[in-house]
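Lab notes, practical 5.
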Amino acid sequence: MFGPRPANKYYKTMAGKERAVYLAIIGLLVAGTLYFAFKTDTALSPSSSPPAYDADSERHSWPIEEFITNLEVPWDMAEDSAGNFYLTERPGRVRSYTSEAKERFSVALKQVASVGESGLTGLALHPNFDENGHLYLYYSYRQSGQLYNRVSRFRLSGEELVEETYILDRLPGGSIHNGERLRFGPDGMLWVLTGDAARASLAQDPTTLAGKVLRLTENGQVPPDNPTPGWLVYSLGHRNPQGLAWHPLTEELLVTEHGETAHDEINIIKPLANYGWPRVKKCYSEDKSLAEPILCSGEETFALSGIAASGTAIWRLRNSFFFAGLRGNLLERIELR
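Output from the prediction step:
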């Protein structure tokens, strides 16, 4: 397992409609401050057949600070250069707050269909957000009674989101397993995680974008240097990936992924690698054509969600990643060597 859950005094259960956003819990480090007191100090190395990760974790006395409260199913967050935060709430709202947690505005998107785990989820700011105001959202919608997912670009005009442009449309959707995270990478490309939409076979189907890691331009086109010309897919065989972050020095991409009841994974994403789902349901396989995770939870599950790299401001943490778990509201640290 990844380690024990922290003592009750270190976390607050997020139940009902009232929510508190703990910046670290959704995979973000802000202004060098951690808002959750939990870490794991075990170094990881890729291995052809590594055992399920099993290590004790250290408890720390860092206090939890409630930064923003009274949110309804907060899902993703981004920060602009002025220190303003932009949050998504799964029922279909985008909220913005100052660095002092004062609300700037709230926008409801009527086109969002919030069913089960679907709704308004992923959010990313364009690298030139200060100049163009472009904000990207991943959300679910209904068409002819069917759930689909979409990535759209909006322009922030004052307190309104205007000029919606579809970047990816009619991605397979469902009440669970939508993936839903998106980020601009160090290469300037937009990276999108999609789930299998509860139809496991789609993860291995090359004719659909479900169950994949996608790499595209800011306008939704295939980058000329993608692994396969004309194809948005960077890797396949994913069940429900929900977090992505790049190593600040090597630019390796790490992705967190929910397993089936257990066997959660952290993977280093390689071009055109196949991560096995649903052919492999317990992390490792005798089939060496399939990629293996660098970390597997074994028979435990913490429902891995967001992940963030520590950056290089604190040099001793330069190889560290922090990931959030939705079981027990925990934050853990892993170190790559």
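Observations recorded by the TA: The helical segments are 129-132. Residues 274 and 290 are 5 Å apart (CA to CA).
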